[in-house]
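Dear support,

I submitted the protein below through the web form. The confirmation email said the job was done, but the results page showed an empty box. After a refresh the structure appeared. I'm attaching both so you can tell me whether what I see now is the final result or a partial one.
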Amino acid sequence: MQQHAIVFGGSGFLGSHVADELTSQGMNVTIFDLNESPFIMPQQNFIKGDILDAKAVAESCRGKDFIYNFAGLADINAAKDNPLLTAQLNIIGQVNVLEGARQAKCKRFIYASTVYVYSESGSFYRISKQAGEKYTEQYWEKYQLPYSILRYGSLYGPRSDHRNAIYRFIESALKEGKIHYSGTGDELREYIHVGDAAKASVDILKPEFQNQHFVITGSQLFRVRDVITMISEILHGVKVEAIFENKDLEAHYNITPYAFKPRLGKKYMVNPFVDMGQGILDCVEQIHKSKSKSNE
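What the results page shows now:
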């Protein structure tokens, strides 16, 4: 019998890739989002809705075996200046989806969290994700709603936009011949290709991964300045100037997000995975195509 999954926030960068991975593994997939997905596949279903509409969320969860929540405010810079909106979308919205999952008696609820839950950085975004994790854990304790909590690191790849750092680097390099970065460039990140993150997000549906926390990041640490150099070398023939402003990144971490210990998360990685250089080529191709279409 075919299993059914719903992806809240499935029109977005990561959510759309997870929806596609679920479809590729034979599931009946529904996307629930405020915006219709430009990436939706013919065999996928779409529901236009708001996670703050508890009734619509509950109705959409009925009959679903697996329920993913990628919806909410994911931009750290936007979240730090909008505490009320962050709480509404990332906490109240999360509880609405949890309640819908409980009523549906689903096999697994999968929550998209962040490595910032380990940190003192991340401002209201981090706080909202910590709260979302706690609600998820309590729904297991009180209602026995099975879950998986996925703590994502720095994502990049196709379907990203200006909210994504590597997208901004490449777009700026192609349009202006310059890459601006607010920090020193020595900040460290474990970048992971969105395709690898999506595969990991579906792999964890196996029974042995129930009621666990997973860190989903890349296999290597990269200095931001080295990634910018890599982009410059890949764009051979395009003169690129890197400008580091040496500012305090405020809500973002510098070297590591780890500052205190919530429940331990195991690091999950897919094998094989997308090499960073190849992944940047994917991004360059996407942005180059978009630029060419806009010039037609």
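Response: this is the final, complete result; the empty box was a page-load delay. The two ends are 47 Å apart (CA to CA).
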